[in-house]
Design a protein that fits this description.
Elements: H1 2-20, H2 23-45, H3 53-74, H4 79-97, H5 105-130, H6 140-164, E1 168-170, E2 174-178, H7 179-199, H8 205-233, H9 248-268
Antiparallel strand pairs: 1-2
Length: 269
């Protein structure tokens, strides 16, 4: 418990520093999160006994992060350009597999592509949300607000489930999740969204409430998806970067899953 508390304190300090330290600090923080999450994902999904596994992890991380970095750091890559670059990188990966002596070359390329879609692309949506008003006008309150919705749902679900949880949500994937906890987390999230609407004016009240519903549903699905991934490869945590809390994916799985839907809500509401 003490280790978890210390880790949580430093985690919160780093997150606040990255979010409110300015545009460059924001970009550095989330680039580290993306690279760390990709490294963990590839460590889980690439076969352990394959030759050149470290080389594949490095290559996969470079392939997945290149389009992300071009958008996240400069906003210079338009969407047709991104599609072309992705196709180019897939074909480059197929060519690289010719020389890496893998038993599953096409599976490896699919893992690289999954890394971009599952990890990198959601954080591109975060970039678009953070700079929605102007390519040079960074809005840190938007980033913190979205994180608070996800963290509130996670904490509210844990506390409610621990106290009142009886009916399992999806026991074969996550034995500890309950319907009571899920509903409790949703209530807490809607309430915090209502409160944030008075403090952070970047979003309207209808937007905050819609975002809270996304967080309440998407956070649970995102957590279950990562649990499904870990069960499929037989690991407890995605990594050990944060003692007592697991890895990058363990901490950001819910946020990653919510980000595309956060962006969609803000376009529609």
């Amino acid at each position: 418990m003490r280790q978890r508390t210390i880790t949580a304190f430093f985690f919160a300090a780093v997150m606040m520093g990255g979010i409110y330290g300015g545009s460059n600090a924001f970009k550095i923080l989330f680039t580290i999160i993306v690279v760390g999450s990709l490294w963990e994902l590839f460590a889980m999904l690439l076969l352990q006994d394959e030759p050149h596994k470290i080389g594949r992890k490095i290559w996969g991380t470079l392939v997945a992060t290149l389009p992300f970095l071009l958008v996240f750091w400069s906003n210079s890559l338009n969407r047709p350009g991104m599609i072309y670059l992705l196709v180019l990188l897939v074909f480059a990966s197929l060519a690289a597999e010719l020389f890496l002596r893998s038993k599953t070359p096409f599976q490896n390329v699919a893992v690289y592509a999954l890394g971009f879609v599952y990890v990198c692309f959601p954080f591109i949506f975060l970039n678009w949300i953070a700079y929605a008003s102007s390519p040079t006008d960074y809005a840190p309150n938007r980033v913190l607000g979205l994180l608070l919705l996800v963290w509130t749902n996670d904490t509210g679900a844990y506390l409610t489930g621990k106290q009142f949880g009886k009916h399992k949500l999806l026991e074969r994937i996550s034995p500890k999740k309950t319907w009571e906890g899920t509903l409790g987390g949703a209530v807490f999230t809607v309430l915090i969204a209502w409160g944030l609407s008075f403090l952070i004016k970047d979003f309207t009240l209808p937007q905050w409430l819609a975002l809270s519903l996304v967080a309440a549903i998407g956070s649970n699905i995102g957590d279950l998806v990562e649990s499904m991934l870990k069960r499929s490869v037989g690991v407890k945590d995605s990594g050990s970067f944060m003692p007592g809390h697991g890895g990058f994916l363990d901490r950001f799985d819910a946020f990653i899953f919510c980000l595309p839907f956060f962006w969609l809500v803000l376009q529609l509401v």
